[in-house]
From TrEMBL:
This is SDR family NAD(P)-dependent oxidoreductase. Belongs to the short-chain dehydrogenases/reductases (SDR) family. It comes from Actinocorallia longicatena. Keywords: Oxidoreductase. Residues 9-200 form the Ketoreductase domain. Transmembrane segments: none annotated. It comes from the Bacteria. The lineage of its organism: Bacteria, Bacillati, Actinomycetota, Actinomycetes, Streptosporangiales.
Length: 299
């Protein structure tokens, strides 16, 4: 089989100074992509800033024969997001691939979380992915080609104690992914999401050392790179990935219960088993399919 290459493609990777983003940038560059390495250079909580991490990744790419530029823009601001895309245009003339990877953690149980801790996490993960994608969108539409990979999380898909802010942002990215896939279809813009489990600065205290050793970032990047390639056919999908395992995560609807005429509270109670069953389930490609299935159930 032929090697998947990205020659002539320009990729933006946010949060690429460390961990997953760094690995994504290195892999794409090693396969011919020109890369904008974005990182604000703060700590896991988002505090601080430094040009060092992004520049170090750029230097490693260049040393290995690739092309890259560093950008320290803040994805959570309109100006920062615009500067990231402009860096790609200024250095390489276009944008083909956007990998929204930047993130921070400010974990607190819901009873202890502050509004600032809620807002800051959503600002980076969800607003940041929106702003960078929005800045690149006109370019992708005009050229009739684009690949966007968003970074969700199992915490968003399934919930996790102490991560109301993080899980809300990560599930929001699933909805953003699905809608951008629909809107980008006619312009050959494919948008997908990953929900990774990997050994990074964010997870080093969550897993025992022996498990972390199996969860290297290099076992996540191959999926990201494939979703960023011109060959990928899927769009609007979410995949969990880690330790060499990849599987599709999907939203499904069970057969449900329907009653002609008036519906009472007691009807809901008495038919709760039918309402709650998940077998057989249906997976809808968009809201139109779900609505048609819903209306069909009323016939």
């Amino acid at each position: 089989m032929s090697e998947l290459r990205y020659d002539g493609r320009v990729a933006i990777v946010t949060g690429a100074g460390h961990g997953l983003g760094r690995q994504h940038a290195l892999e794409l560059a090693s396969r011919g992509a020109k890369v904008v390495v974005n990182d604000l250079g703060g700590d896991v909580s988002g505090a601080g800033a430094s040009a060092g991490p992004a520049q170090e990744v750029v230097e490693e790419i260049v040393k290995n024969g690739g092309e890259a530029v560093a950008n320290g823009g803040n994805v959570a601001t309109e100006e920062g997001a615009a500067s990231i895309v402009q860096s790609a245009v200024d250095a390489f003339g276009k944008v083909d691939i956007v990998i929204n990877n930047a993130g921070i953690l400010r974990d607190k149980s819901f009873k202890n979380i502050s509004v600032a801790e809620w807002d800051s996490v959503l600002a980076v993960h969800l607003r940041g992915s929106f702003l960078v994608s929005l800045a690149a969108w006109p370019i992708l539409r005009e050229q009739g080609y684009g690949r966007i990979v968003n970074t969700s999380s199992p915490s968003g898909l399934f919930g996790n104690f102490g991560q109301a802010n993080y899980s809300s942002a990560k599930m929001g990215l699933v909805g953003l992914t699905k809608t951008l896939a629909i809107e980008g279809a006619k312009n050959n813009i494919k948008v997908n999401a990953i929900a990774p489990i990997a050994a990074t600065r964010m997870t080093e205290e969550l897993f025992p050392a022996d498990l972390l050793a199996k969860l290297g970032v290099e076992k996540v990047t191959p999926l990201v790179a494939y979703l960023a390639h011109e060959e990928v056919a899927d769009s609007g999908q979410t995949f969990t990935v880690g330790g060499g395992h990849i599987s599709k995560i999907f939203v499904a609807e069970g057969p449900g219960f329907t009653k002609a005429g008036d519906l009472s509270v007691e009807d809901v109670r008495d038919n709760w088993a039918a309402i709650s069953t998940t077998d057989p389930y249906a997976v809808h490609a968009n809201i139109g399919e779900q609505t048609m299935a819903f209306l069909s159930a009323l016939q």
